[in-house]
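To close the chapter, one final illustration. This time we ask the reader to focus less on the individual chains and more on the assembly as a whole: which components sit near each other, and how the overall shape emerges from the parts.
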Amino acid sequence: MSSYAPALITYLTRIRFEFGALAALGEELAFAGITRPLLCTDAGIVRAGLADRVRAALPAGMEMATYDGTPGNPTEAAVRDAAAAFRAHGADGVIGLGGGSAMDLSKAASLMATHPDVPMSNYAVIEGGLARITDKVAPIVCIPTTAGTGSEVGRGGIIILADGRKVSIGSPHMLPRVALCDPELTFGLPPILTAATGMDAITHCAECFLSLKVNPPADAIALDGLSRAWRHLERATANGQDREARWEMLMASMEGAMAFQKGLGAVHALAHPLGAVNNGTLHHGTLNAVLLPHVIRFNAPAVHQKFATLAQVMGLTVSAATEEGIAGAFAALSARLGLPATLGAMGVPRTVIPDIAVAATKDHCHPGNPRLASVTDYQDILSAAF
Ligand SMILES: [Zn+2]
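The assembled structure is written out below.
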């Protein structure tokens, strides 16, 4: 029976989750063995005053350098700049502060500052990079300021390589030693980013749960995360100061990433290459929100028996436990959040369909999809999303 197939399950991250968790930064840096950190973040986070709050939370006398050049989607060039800043400072660890891009960049910088200076494609999961990443990676502490990616508990990052491919670079050695989750740091996130990043969390939970790989703990975490996000994303979007909604969304985001140790699927296999289109300016969460209903329809023959559980967790009626009921509920939530409904509305040119469809079959998330998708299948899913 397929549900008794072999399972490989790994869970162990130190997570400090509370309002005001940032005050424990000194203690957690000591736990991680970091005495001279490089802060990896982006210019918006600095403008919002969050980098200053991190600096103020440092132990007296600790010297921290800052790299704030993280692009919307992190690039190999930016990672190399951050690694150079690490070496120039004589750093012994990194703090990743921000959304998924800044946290992913912090992990990749920690890798590149401590490993042979070869093209980063050598470290990509799809190129066998896992075996080249050693315990030399400098310790990482991640502090999320968005609720969506969950990168603070993820073991890698998504990087746009110098050759234009958007790939995953990851290893257990790149797992942050500590995730410092402070919902107060998400209060300033604007409504549209709250909505888009929140849909990323929802997609992680839904896509993991629907994957046919065997990982019951991941399934349970994914369903808990989906339930929290489903009930609180609109509240957090409508009122960024809603403490309860912000706490719930940060928890859902973290749970989504804990769950995706199990593996994601076609939504992410498509969203990754699409993230490199239009100079890497398309928001990952928004892409997921657009694609999720179409992938659910495609996957329905393989996963329809799971729709009743999803409907229950999402508070839908029993009659909505169908392919259209579930896909429609996700699309309706996106619409209520004010997110675009189609790739066209996001500014994606139709001409990219053939290349994205091919790239999706090479993405590390492709094999995890419950129904094996061909290039033609991906073309059809993309066409439906326009
Ligand atoms: Zn994602």
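The chain is about 45% helix and 10% strand. Residues 35 and 92 are 7 Å apart (CA to CA). With these observations in hand, you are ready for the problems at the end of the chapter.
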